[in-house]
Amino acid sequence: MVDGTGNPWFRGDIGIKDGRIVKISKISPDAEAKQVIDARGMVVSPGFIDIHSHSDLPLLVDGLAQGKVRQGVTTEVIGNCGFTLAPLMSKMAKEDLKNELEEFGLELNWETMDEYLNLLQKQGVSLNVVPLIGHGIIRKSVMNYDKRKASNEEIKKMRQLVRECMEAGAFGITTGLIYPPSCYADLDELVDLAKVVAHYGGFYATHMRNESAELYQAVEESIDIGRRVGLPVQISHHKVCQPDHWGEVDRTLKLMHRVRNDEGLDVTCDVYPYIATATGLSAVIPEEYHEGGKEKLLAHLKDPATRKILLSILETQQGPRGWHNLFISSVKTEKNRTAEGKDVQTLAKERGISPADVVIDLLIEEELAVGMIRFAMCEDDVVRVLTDDLAMVGSDGGALAIDGPLAKGKPHPRNFGTFPRVLGKYVREEGVLTLEKAVQKMTSMPAARLGLMQKGILREGLDADITIFDPATVKDMADFKNPLQYPVGIFHVIVNGTIVVQNGEHTGKKPGKVLRKS
């Protein structure tokens, strides 16, 4: 048994009743039980908590959360990188989401955070859900895609929306400062909204403004927000995405440690165990062209004069990073289905055009609905962050599946393999983490960040969220060529005392709860 605290493993039995752990000791073989799981030779640990997920929409599509519970995840934190599905207080915010929902045959029948969370709980989920507030949707609800400083009245409206979300049970606010419209916010705006979150005891999580040449400055800005407001800071998927700056995470981690030690500011980070990023292809288009929303961006791309300018920008800014490192992970139409899984350089050769032309053509033809994967980090940096005492594990992925509506394209393998990969590759094979430390980074560390005192540790009286795996065989099977594969070695997953995964197969149960911060 590995209890999640980082302490050495020990042998014992666990008794569960009414969703709680009622006993941890040697239990008599004569004791009565409705069901017994023989876990001899396996590790029994707290259920994994994915501190950084993007399951906001996938959980509405399919509450079974197959791709996550089969990894041993029992609690999912949604609303990261400034993206969430509520609140929706402008026509543009609603229209943008309606287009996404149509792909899955879903209707938009909520506006507020409270209504969204109620719907999620009513439909049922197989794991627990922790909601965060996306700054991007807050700004879009008040200012659409306007690239300018918010007025005092607009700040007031955004603060009210944040307040309503916190009162609905959100645990904090997140920013995606490379994505419009979140990237249009200045420091004053972020501080003003963070003050509301601090009042309710929440925290600030951020996909920072820069993860390459200005990584250090971006971490400084994130820390400054926490410093000015007095609230904890979570650096999302900490990494550096440009070869010229690999190794810079050593400086930023030292900065985080120094701030904790000298100032007493609670700053931590999360990391996923891969050297490739994933996001929408439209992210390669400079932020100024996103002003006004999706229709304006498409108009820019279709305009011959603007296209010429953008081709030059893409070749200058993206070309040096290697077009062979940028892969198309998903498209919307059958016309471009063969592009999925191919790098842009290969597509350029196949189509007889430049790589930059491929990018713009795909964005136009797919109406911006193109996913990309980019190989941008180095293994040394991944290990450096993963093994740091301030880092916890987060997938940066969604609760996808290997079949059905959530099995589309060639998604990043982190959606299916993050947690087993840490246990198999970095614990068993490479030995850069002890088993106890790895489990701690997946359980009690994120539970402490979230303030979930009933989760993340195996202890009598706490929630029975439990993952049982074989340390000798646990392994991620998903890779970049064939990502739609569940891991192996995760045998049983228990959520709130109910078995959700048994002998490696989903039971179809949905005992998860939408958790709300009191």
Outline the structure in words:
The chain is of the alpha/beta class and about 525 residues long. It has two domains: about 375 residues, Alpha-Beta Barrel (TIM Barrel), CATH 3.20.20; about 100 residues, no CATH class. The chain has 17 helices and 19 strands. Strands 7-8-9-10-11-15 form a six-stranded parallel β-sheet, sandwiched between helices. The protein has a five-stranded antiparallel β-sheet with strand order 3-16-17-18-19, with no helix packed on it. A three-stranded parallel β-sheet has the order 4-5-6, with helices on one face. It is globular and about 80 Å long.
Structural features:
19 strands, six-stranded parallel sheet, Amidohydro_3, Metal-dep_hydrolase_composite, alpha/beta, hydrolase activity, acting on carbon-nitrogen (but not peptide) bonds, in cyclic amides, five-stranded antiparallel sheet, single chain, hydrolase activity, acting on carbon-nitrogen (but not peptide) bonds, in linear amides, Metallo-dep_Hydrolases_sf
